[in-house]
Amino acid sequence: MNLNTLSVEKFSHIFPYMENILQFGAYCYSFDTKELEWSQGMYHILGIKSPTAIPTVSLFLKYIHKEDEQQVLHEVRDSLRHKRPYRVEFSITNEQGIFKRVYAENFIKFNDQGDVLEYCGIVKDITENYRFKKALEQKIEQLDKSNSSLQEFVYVASHDLQEPLRKISTFVERIHAKHFESLNEEGQSYLKRVQTSAGNMQTLLEDLLDFSKLSFDEKKFEKVNLQQCINGVISELELKIEESKTSVRCGESPDIEAYPSQIRQLFSNLINNSIKFRKEHEAPVITISCDMVTHNDFPELSLAENRNYVRITVEDNGIGFDEEFSERIFKIFQRLHGKTEYKGSGIGLAICKKIVDNHHGFIFANSKPNVGSNFTILLPQLQS
Fold it and tell me: How far does CA 42 lie from the centroid of its chain?
C-alpha cells in the first residue's frame, strides 16, 4: 500500500462529516464506463433518501428549475467543447419539495492524448447566503425608495414654502416703509422681530434646498483642477474677504475626479465658516493645503487599498470649539452658538459632509477654543 492510498483510506471516513459541515456534495462521471457517481452529500442536497436511487444526469436535471436548466446545460457543453472548467449558480427544488440555491464547480481529467477521461466536481448548497443576499437587496431597494421619496419631499416642500415666505416678507417691508414711524416702541420691536425671523426662515429654506439637491445624482464625475476651483471660490467671496480683512493662503493642489459644482460649494462653505467664526479683534487667516496619501496613512479609516487619496486641510485662527463637538458639527441643524451671536441655519458643515460622502471620502475636524480649527478632507483622486 503506497502513501497516497494510505492517505485516502485514513481520511475517507470523515469525508461525509466534511460534506455535512460544509454543505456540499461531490460527483464524478467516467467517459470510459459512462457511469456517474455521487457522494453522500449529493443525495443530501437533492433530498434523495432511497438507497437504490441510481445517479444519472437526467435525474439531476429534473430538480433544476426550468429557467436555469438551459444555462446549466450551456455551461456543461461549453466546458466539454473547450475543455475548461465551469462555475455556475442555479436553483433546484429537491425530492422533498425544498427550494435550494446551489453553486457547481468542476474539474476535468485528461489522458496523455488530451482526451477527457473524467468529469468531476462539487455542488455546494448556498441557500442561506442566497436568501440573505436577496433580503439585503430588497432592504436596499426599499431604503433607496424611501430616501428618494424623502429627498423629493424636502425639495418640493422647501421650494413651495418660498412663495408664501416672499409674500410675508413683502408685506412686512411695506408695513415698515409706510407705518413704522406710527407704531409705538413695542410695535416697532415686534415688526423688527418678524423681519428677522422671515430672513432667518429664507436662509434656512435656501440651505435646506441646497442640502436636498446634493442627494440627486449629477451626470458624471469630471476632472476638476482644485487650484482653479479654490481660486474661483476666493474670487466669488472677494467682497466678504475684503470686509473681514481675511487672508487666504493656498498651496499647490492636484486634479481630482469629482462633481465640479459640489467641490466649489465644499470650499465655499468651509471658507465662509472660517470667516463667520473669526475672533473679534483678530483678522482671519485661512490656510488651504493639499497632499497625496494612501490607506497606510490612515489605518483607522476604511480607505480603499488600491486608491490614492488627496488630503485637503483648511486651517483657520478663529474662535474654535471643544473637541467633544467634532462629530456633532457635521449633523444637520446642529449649532454650537446662539443665533444672536452668529447667523446661519446650522446646515453648512452638514452640506460639506454630504458632499464628501458623495465622493466616497472622509471629513473630520480638530479644534481648540480660542486657537482655531483644522478641517481635514480625504477624497479619492480617481473615482473610477
Answer: 40
Judgement on whether residues 121 and 12 belong to the same structural domain of the protein = yes
Q: Measure CA of the first residue to CA of the last residue in the chain; give whole Å.
A: 58
Residues 276-298, mean pLDDT to the nearest whole number: 91
| Count of helices and strands (H, E) across the chain | 11, 12
Q: Of the residues 198, 216, 234, which one is the last residue of a structural domain?
A: 216
CA angle 129, 134, 139 (to 5 degrees): 125
How far apart (Å, rounded) are the C-alpha atoms in residues 349 and 363? 10
Name the least confident of 115-129, 194-208, 247-261.
194-208
Range of the domain at 207: 127-216
Q: What is the CATH number of the domain that holds 163?
A: 1.10.287.130
Indicate the length of the chain as a whole number.
Answer: 384
Q: Is pLDDT at 53 greater than 70 in this prediction? A: yes
> What is the average pLDDT across 215-220?
60
Q: Residue 62 sits in a domain of what CATH number?
A: 3.30.450.20
CB neighbour list of residue 339: distance below 8 Å, 6 or more residues apart: 200
* Average pLDDT of span 328-342: 61
Cβ-contact 343, 203 below 8 angstroms? yes
How many domains does the chain contain in total?
Answer: 3
